[in-house]
Amino acid sequence: MTEAQRIKQATYHLWTFTASKMMATLGSNVLAFGISLYILAMTGSAASFAMNMICSILPRALIAPFVGYMADNYSKKRIILLAQVGTIMIVSGLLLYTELVGLSVYAVYVTTVFSTICAAFSGITFTSAISALVGPERLQKAMSFNQMSMSIAAIGGPVIGGMMYGFFSMKVFLIVHIAAYIIAFCLEATMNFKLYSTKEETEQKETVWAGLKGGYDYIKQQKIVKTIMWVALWINLFFSAIAVGGTYIVVEVLKVKATHFGFIEGASAVGMLMASLYFATRPEVKAPLRFSKISLLLLAGSIGFTVIPLVTALSYSMLVGYYIVLYFIFAIFEMGINMPIGVYMQKLIAEEYRGRVFGLMETMSMAMMPLGMMVYGILYDTLPATLILLTTSISVIAITLVLLPTAILKEAHPEFYRQKKKQLVNKTI
């Protein structure tokens, strides 16, 4: 294949990858929105809502290292396509069960577990394959385009879900999800996952244990990777306060209507879209870990502002408008954390280890979330939300400052800090 043909194929991958992610995310978001409101309507409990979120996280956290091993040792394209087929069959099974027996909370929990496992195979394998699909020069653009597509889908998902909730049954939500994944499957089937691959194919495969140990040993040699994993471990525990509490506070405590809550969640997607456009049109961040630390501190501080509607008398329209702005800001800061680190890690990690490293990182980053969701689900049912949110905000700021001191940032980006010091010296002369 000539370089011109490779560039043409990579450009095709940019758009195909973007479109497939948008369709799959749109279907997932519409279904997730409907299911979350269904569970709250049936139970009225934050703990029940948290249980479904645990079902969407715990299986992925447990299976992620094995998925990483599979992605590094077997055909990425085959893994992704089989995972998409699995998702279609699982949701189709829930649709059939609903038609014959009727929808139940426990059926939703079971479906969430198995679809989460399929999503782990698809998501981690895709993450490890991005560089091979588009090449290192287009990496930030590819990740930005991918996030833009997911943001567009995330804008449409809650809005469509909010409008559908009052007029259609859960069967329609399931049908939309199935149709979206069929389209995504057809697009992904046309992609060449070895376009920019530098990995040599070997007949002899590592055993699962040897492969996992190799990934773990590789991580031990990368101090910055270990630091990022520890930050993710603790931060994801505390950010369960928003994952669980956001929907519970807005819908159950403040009694915001389902349609309006769809617009609130849609604002988060708009924020991600704006941030994605920013990263897609600018050079790579020079010191991504430093950039992410600043964004994390800003996000932690903004969590404290979620208590204002709980302690002040706002009109209904002001209440909805306030949370629209707040969710927009949350998304901007979240992208400021994830995008620079994502590009940095893609370039830092060798291709033959990416699947295992990203799998182990995902396990570490998600390990605390099920515990956090269950704890926060119970806390929101027993303690004032204002106390929970303010304590969480302070805790995240403290953990960020402890785990990401300036010394770590200088080690991660020595050239940036040398240049900064040189500029400072020149100014004083």
From TrEMBL:
TM region positions: 12-40, 46-67, 79-97, 103-136, 148-168, 174-195, 228-251, 263-281, 293-316, 322-345, 357-379, 385-409
Keyword Transmembrane part of the UniProt annotation: yes
Protein name: MFS transporter
Membrane topology term: Multi-pass membrane protein
Main subcellular localisation: membrane
Top-level taxon in the UniProt lineage: Bacteria
Keyword match Iron: no
Pfam families: MFS_1
Keyword tags: Cell membrane, Membrane, Transmembrane, Transmembrane helix, Transport
Subcellular location: Cell membrane
Protein's organism: Lysinibacillus piscis
